TrEMBL record:
One protein family per Pfam: Lyase_1
Root EC class: lyase
Name of the protein in its database record: Argininosuccinate lyase
The protein's Enzyme Commission number: 4.3.2.1
GO cellular component term of the entry, any: cytosol
Main location, first listed in the record: cytoplasm
Catalytic activity field: 2-(N(omega)-L-arginino)succinate = fumarate + L-arginine
Lineage: Bacteria, Pseudomonadati, Pseudomonadota, Gammaproteobacteria, Enterobacterales
Length: 459
């Protein structure tokens, strides 16, 4: 039985009923809906709609339903209720009879769904934060284990300047820290309860909305009911943050796919997260990373989808808004799965110190150091850059690295070059010189690792 039968003479079309129903996906809001319904029933006592004992009967029936759901959430799907709110009300009435019909006094499914969804978002944000912190820890530990592995850093996928594997790890740590800060910021905005907004203009009953808000774990109640039932900004924000978070994970995946390629051979992925080819016995494919990279697309899709659903939508509630859930639920599951998978992948990689170092040595990635050396000897940088470039050309011609050129060759290009050029352009020197804030110098990186270990309680 629908919650709105009275005004209707005809039956709903079967296909429309199915088309209109959200139960198959909003059933996961059951616990949030029960939490909000219990809080609402208590407010109804203060508003003199329910007696204390009626409220107690309603509350224990709701808690009984919660237990039933916890035991088997999918059981709900067997019913043909329109949505989770209807399912809970119908089942409450089955439990306590006509008394259950009093619970919806002064509230609407419009403020109910806005409240449930905010509660759900708050919960999933806390889960996501834990998963991000967990991945942060894996990055710090991996950095610590590989702090002296030198490898090439890239721009335009061309070897650019030497870095360390630890430094690469710590760059992702920064991204994950911003992901945390975005979610924490959203938690502040989401912490305002819409319950008591009614359909759109507030409730006609004497409800202390701030008190109601506090009882559900919110900090306060919203200020304008028309906005409260229309507002899905937090869904847009969460999906934007999920998109940014997935973008980070997709770049991480792409980097590792490349590092793991036969061409780079910087790392080896564990057998436990790779798969073979049905035809080519030699293959070990980075499926887990490719899936993370690929799954980024569906999260972006959900973000665009909610923005388009809400664009130009008139105030206040419109059924279009039921389309806010599937993309959100799917995206948050995807983001959390990918965070866990990224931890698993990183925990089990084998870093190939030798080939990382060789690639860094072969790459002329110390040519900036020659230019800087010349600058120190009084040559303007633009000119120094040109000399260094010519030396690179010469070294390429001689199939040598810069460090292997004879001093006489160096001096042909600039008379200020002396023997100390060699100690200035070693990989070690390249790294050590960059000790200013944020630079790649091993001391700086070790410092950073220690600071992060302290912050994350890693012993
Ligand atoms: N299932 C609906 C949704 O997810 C709940 C709100 C229904 N409100 C209404 N006025 N029909 O948006």
């Amino acid at each position: 039985m629908a919650l709105w039968g009275g005004r209707f003479l005809g039956e709903s079309d079967k296909f429309f009923k199915k088309f209109n129903s959200s139960l198959s996906f909003d059933y996961i809001l059951a616990e949030c809906d029960i939490l909000a319904s219990v809080a609402w029933s208590r407010s109804l006592v203060e508003a003199c709609v329910l007696t204390e004992s009626e409220q107690k009967r309603i509350e224990s029936a709701l808690l009984f339903l919660k237990q039933k759901i916890l035991n088997n959430a999918k059981e709900i799907l067997k019913s043909n209720s329109e949505d989770i709110h209807s399912w809970i009300e119908e089942n409450l009435i089955k439990e306590v009879g006509d008394l259950g019909k009093k619970l919806h006094t002064g509230r609407s499914r419009n403020d109910q769904i806005a409240t449930d969804l905010k509660l759900w978002c708050k919960n999933i944000i806390h889960v996501t934060l834990k998963n991000i912190i967990n991945l942060q820890k894996v990055f710090v530990i991996t950095a610590s284990n590989n702090h002296n592995v030198i490898m090439p850093g890239y721009t335009h996928l061309q070897r650019a300047q030497p870095i360390t594997f630890a430094y690469w790890c710590l760059s992702y740590l920064q991204m994950l820290k911003r992901d945390v800060s975005r979610l924490e910021d959203l938690l502040k905005r989401i912490d305002v309860s819409p319950l008591g907004s009614g359909a759109l203009s507030g409730t006609a009953w004497n409800i202390n909305r701030d008190k109601l808000a506090l009882s559900m774990g919110f900090s306060s109640a919203t200020n304008n009911s028309l906005d409260s039932v229309s507002d899905r900004d937090y869904v847009v924000e969460l999906l934007s943050f999920a998109s940014i978070g997935m973008m980070h994970l997709s770049r991480f995946s792409e980097d590792l796919i490349f590092f793991n390629s036969n061409e780079a051979n910087f790392i080896e992925l564990s057998d436990s997260i790779t798969s073979g080819s049905s035809l080519m016995p030699q293959k070990k494919n980075p499926d887990a990373l490719e899936l993370i990279r690929g799954k980024c697309g569906r999260v972006y899709g959900s973000m665009i989808s909610i923005l388009v659903v809400l664009k130009s939508l008139p105030l206040s509630y419109n059924k279009d808004m039921q389309e806010d859930k599937e993309g959100l639920f799917d995206s948050m599951k995807t983001w959390n799965d990918c965070l866990s998978m990224a931890s698993l992948i990183l925990k089990n990689i084998q870093v190939n110190n030798q080939s990382c170092r060789k690639a860094a040595e072969k790459s002329y990635s110390n040519s900036t150091e020659i230019a800087d050396y010349l600058v120190k000897k009084g040559i303007p940088f633009r000119k120094a850059h040109d000399i260094s470039g010519k030396l690179v050309l010469r070294a390429i011609k001689e199939k040598k690295s810069l460090n292997d050129l004879d001093l006489s060759v160096f001096q042909k290009y600039s008379s200020v070059i002396e023997k100390d050029i060699y100690s200035n352009i070693t990989l070690k020197a390249c790294l050590e010189k960059r000790f200013s804030q944020g630079g790649v110098s091993p001391d700086q990186v070790l410092n950073e690792i220690q600071k992060e270990k302290n912050r994350l309680n890693i012993i």
